[in-house]
Amino acid sequence: MSIDLNSEEQAVIDQIERFSNEVLAPAAAAIDAKGQFATLHRAALAEMGITGMNLPETYGGIGLSGPALYCAVEAVAGACGSTASMLTAHFLATDSLLLGAGETLKRRFLPAAAAGEALGAFALTEPMAGSNPADMRSTATATGDGDGYRLKGSKCFISNAGDADFIVVYAKTDSTAGARGVSAFVLEPAKTDGVEIGKREETMGLRGGHVFPISFDCRVPAENRLGDEGTGFRTAMKVLDNGRIEVAAQATGIARAALGAAVSYAKEREVGGRPIGSFQGLQWMLADSATELAAARALGLQAARKRGTGERYSTDSAFAKLYASEAAWRIADRALQIHGGYGYTRDFPMERYLRDLRIFRIYEGSSEIQRTIIAREMLS
C-alpha cells in the first residue's frame, strides 16, 4: 500500500527499520527467553529520537505524522515485540500529558520523556475495572489544606511500572459521578512515599515488556493533576484511540515478519525435490495471509491519517485494532503451520510471534469492546 511520507519522515523510517533489523531483531529471542526488560535498548532508541516520536518538537519530540508513527511502531514490533510494548506504553503516558495536561506540567515531564531520560507508565486498569474503566475504585481526595490530593487504590497490568520515572494514574475525585468523576494525576514513584510496585507478572508473551500491579496510599501535589477535575476519563479515551492504532501497528509488524519468514521458508524447504511453495495449497495460505495483512495495514493507516487532525477517529481506531489483532494471529498461525514441526520449536521465531500476538486481542480494549464501539456508532 502506498504511504505518503515526506522525505524527512521517510529517512527517519528507513533509519528505524535498519536499527530494528540490525540491533533489535538479533536480541529479541534472548530478551524473550530471559524475560529481560526491553529498556536495555532505551538509550539507543532515545538517541534516534524514537522515545519522543509521538511528541511535537515544542516538547523535544520529532513530531512524526500519524502514518509515519504507524510505520515506525510497525518496524520496531516486527523486530522485537517486547521493545515495541515498552515503547508504546511510554507513549500512552506521554500522550496523556500531551492531551490532558496544562503547559506547566507538559514542560516538567515531556522533554525528559522525549529524550529518553524519563520512562512513563499509564495506569488505568484495575482488578475490578478492566473493560469498563468508569468502574474504577481508586480515589483522589482533596487534602484539607487544598494543596494536594490523597491518592488511594490499586492498578494492575501496568506496563513499565517497575522502571517508570513517572506514572499517569487515573482515579475518582467524585465517586458519585461515574466517568465524569475521573481525574488524572502524575505520580513520581521514586519521590513519593506510599507507592508500592508489586511483583512482575509472568506473561505468556511480550516477556520483555514488563507489567506490574501497583498499590498506592500517598499524597500528590495539586499541580500534578492533568487539567480540571473530572476530565480524566475523556483524556484516557483519547489516549486509547491513539493506543489502539499503535496496537494495530504492532500486530501488523509482527504479522509482516511472520509472513516474510513463511515466504522464505516456502522457497527453501523441499519435499519430493520441489520447494513447498510450489504446492497450490500452501500458495493459497500465503495469498490469504498477504491479503489480510494488506487489509489490516489499510485500516491502521486510515485511522493513523486522522490522528492529530481534529477529526473523530474512535471508530477508525476500533476497526484497525480489532481487525489487525485478529488477522495477525491468523497470519502467524499459518506461518507456523508452513514451518511444520520446526515452527513449533524455539529455534524459529514463529512460536514467539504467536505468544506475543495473543495479548493484542485483550489489552487496550478487547476485541469484544472494539465490536461494541463500532456497533454503537452504527446504531447512534
Which descriptors apply to this entry?
3 domains; Butyryl-CoA Dehydrogenase, subunit A, domain 2; 380 residues; four-stranded mixed β-sheet; four-stranded antiparallel β-sheet; Butyryl-Coa Dehydrogenase, subunit A, domain 1; 10 strands; alpha+beta; 14% strand; elongated; Butyryl-CoA Dehydrogenase, subunit A, domain 3
Give an overview of the whole structure.
- The chain has 380 residues and is an alpha+beta fold.
- The protein has 3 domains: 7-114, Acyl-CoA dehydrogenase/oxidase, N-terminal domain (Butyryl-Coa Dehydrogenase, subunit A, domain 1); 120-233, Butyryl-CoA Dehydrogenase, subunit A, domain 2; 240-379, Butyryl-CoA Dehydrogenase, subunit A, domain 3.
- It has helices spanning 7-34, 42-47, 66-79, 81-100, 103-114, 232-268, 280-306, 314-339, 350-358, 367-379; strands at residues 120-123, 139-142, 148-159, 166-172, 182-187, 195-197, 211-221, 225-226, 270-271, 274-275.
- The strands form 3 sheets. The chain has a 4-stranded mixed beta sheet with strand order 1-4-5-8. A 4-stranded antiparallel beta sheet has the order 2-3-7-6, with helices on one face.
- The radius of gyration is 21 Å and the shape is elongated.
- The mean pLDDT is 96.
Distance between the termini: 32 Å
Category by helix and strand content: alpha+beta
Low-confidence stretches: none
Number of helices: 10
According to CATH, what is the topology of the largest domain?
A: Butyryl-CoA Dehydrogenase, subunit A, domain 3
